[in-house]
């Protein structure tokens, strides 16, 4: 049976802001930000930027000239640094991940190349992720984002009620565990993988309530959600497959095109993201930080 997915444009309407301008990317989420210099933004400006981020869920702040120290300062304006469990940070910047793919790498594999929410297996997953584009190819390497609050709201009320009482199991095993040999193909990143990950398994509510907006969010993702507490594996697989297909519907997504000097900031508590591997043979260099969040709750 044909399903008609839709999102009303009022969900992602432009906000009235004083210190910058926002242009919505789609009816579902995302906005381009212009007219701001993050090096000069004051405390009130960052407070306004946070409100825009909570509303649009992901911001694309263009035409910035940031050094690593600037990215650290911007990150701290949103909260304390998050923990990076499997990716080695820069020696002089212990909270910054250098995300780089050189033009001469042998395979097209990219870091984080699946729909996911960052580190959802942590006790306190990141609230926000910041990713700055330093050296960007002329085309390719777009990033998709999905609105998991919209995905929740599309589900039928009986299914929402059933999911509300469930806990999902989150584990880094497939991405970084014993069988995660794909990490060997990331030639210019230092990634720890191949060891037991039992200590990183967490159970979080399958439906969470966003601590700042109050929205209910579908808090599962294909990369790290490995099961559902109390359900048989076959039952959990069938249910998660359905939920993943809903969340990935184009209606609930936006696609960001990178350009040099763009900083993307997303609300990790209510979104997925997916980097696209279509720039093999071209160099790309980025810097990434996270802001620690809260333990997910109903």
TrEMBL record:
GO terms for cellular component: cytoplasm. GO terms for molecular function: 2-oxoglutarate-dependent dioxygenase activity; metal ion binding. Its EC number is 1.14.11.-. It comes from the Bacteria. Keywords: Dioxygenase, Iron, Metal-binding, Oxidoreductase. It is an enzyme of class 1 (oxidoreductase). InterPro entries: AtsK-like, TauD-like_sf, TauD/TfdA-like. Residues 23-290 form the TauD/TfdA-like domain. Signal peptide: none annotated. Belongs to the TfdA dioxygenase family. This is Alpha-ketoglutarate-dependent taurine dioxygenase. The lineage of its organism: Bacteria, Pseudomonadati, Pseudomonadota, Gammaproteobacteria, Pseudomonadales.
């Amino acid at each position: 049976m044909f399903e008609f997915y839709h999102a009303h444009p009022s969900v992602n309407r432009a906000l009235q802001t004083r210190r910058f301008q926002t242009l919505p990317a789609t009816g579902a989420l995302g906005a381009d930000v212009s007219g701001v210099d993050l090096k000069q933004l004051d405390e009130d400006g960052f407070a306004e930027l946070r409100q825009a981020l909570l509303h649009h869920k992901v911001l694309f702040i263009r035409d910035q000239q940031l050094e690593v120290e600037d990215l650290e300062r911007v990150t701290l304006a949103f909260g304390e640094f998050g923990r990076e469990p499997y990716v080695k940070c820069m020696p002089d910047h212990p909270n910054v991940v250098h995300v780089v793919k050189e033009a001469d790498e042998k395979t097209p594999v990219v870091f984080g190349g699946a729909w996911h929410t960052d580190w959802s297996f942590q006790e306190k997953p990141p609230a926000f992720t910041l990713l700055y584009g330093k050296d960007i190819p002329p085309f390719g390497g777009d990033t998709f984002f999905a609105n998991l609050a919209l995905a929740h709201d599309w589900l039928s009320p009986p299914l929402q009620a059933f999911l509300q009482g469930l806990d999902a199991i989150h584990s880094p095993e497939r991405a970084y565990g014993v069988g995660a040999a794909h990490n060997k193909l990331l030639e210019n990143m230092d990634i720890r993988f191949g060891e037991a990950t039992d200590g990183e398994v967490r159970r979080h509510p399958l439906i969470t309530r966003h601590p700042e907006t109050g929205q209910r969010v579908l808090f599962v993702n294909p990369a790290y959600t490995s099961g559902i507490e109390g359900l048989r594996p076959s039952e959990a697989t069938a249910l998660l497959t359905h939920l993943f297909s809903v969340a990935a519907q184009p209606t609930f997504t936006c696609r960001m095109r990178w350009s040099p000097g763009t900083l993307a900031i997303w609300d990790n508590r209510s979104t997925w993201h997916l980097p696209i591997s279509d720039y093999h043979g071209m160099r790309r260099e980025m810097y990434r930080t996270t802001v620690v969040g809260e333990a997910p709750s109903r």
